[in-house]
Amino acid sequence: MANSTCENMQCYMVLTKTEEMVIGSICFLAGPVTLMENLLVLVVITTTVSLRKRPSYLFIGSLALADVFASCFFTISFLDFHLFHRSDGPTAYLFKLGGVTLAFTNSVGSLLLTALDRYLCIYCAASYKVLLTRRRALLSLLVLWSITIVISFLPLMGWRCPTGLTPPCSNLFPYINRVYLACWTSFILVLLALIVGAYALILWKAHSHEASMSSLQGAACTGQARMRMDIRLARIFALILLILVGCWLPVLSFMLVDVSTTLTHAQQRAYAFCSTLCLINSAVNPLLYALWCRDLRLALLHSLQRLLEIGKCKKSTSDASPKLHSVENNTVTEDELSRARAT
Description:
Layout: H1 17-47, H2 49-52, H3 55-82, H4 90-123, H5 128-131, H6 134-152, H7 154-157, H8 178-217, H9 229-260, H10 265-290, H11 294-342
Helix pairs in contact: 1-3, 1-10, 3-4, 3-6, 3-10, 4-6, 4-8, 8-9, 9-10
């Protein structure tokens, strides 16, 4: 590919018919599920006043919004390119790719803000509400989205492959400059490293706190059946980091290899499968970050109860209206009968 042309992007459409069916099934299943889950989280947060005022749920709402964009942009553009073999021009393709990049970059950035929020909650518990106000949380989200918008659409603004498709610069993305790909990959790797570091510090703080409490309370608490807080946090954070790193590391590894060498068709096909892991990560995020929060679960149950009550009220009203109508009709006929008898 390095010394040849790539007309109509045929060198990027390397999937076989069986692979297209498998990837299409994954996207058609994960895309709508991701969209519905994150929309549900957004609706619950925006309709609950107590949640909208708390910075933690603002970050979770930003994560859900980014994953909504990811479910739309990635699914549509990925299927349009690999299954329907649509060959767009440079402007249209880079605009679609910018939307996908914006969604996934904001998703990882929102995960970092969520990790930093939990870090401040543990390390600065006394002054947490003073340090992280709602205004500062909104300002941090504004800065995050502004930076990611600029970074995501830099290729559309002009930082693209100088040779176009004759020959292409990248074996994974048409019209993309390898220097830009290296910078974006490094940026995501730094964000992931900060997330892992924040959760590691939280676990260390929880472990030291539990050790000091055990020494103060003596051996009476050691025999209790309940699990220690640091062990519970370790299991939860290990699951979070395992899913996060497992979904993102294969994709980023292929991008780093693409920057330094030429990929084969087998490696391009493997990358296409690995890229769907990012969509699966967006589908898992609401379960890991939103539905595990007790307040959000209660707000969700309260919203469902209100919907059920509204449905019952509408049903009871519709059932009672014909009865009232029949009573009115009976009253009229009885009055007419009495007048007839009097006459």
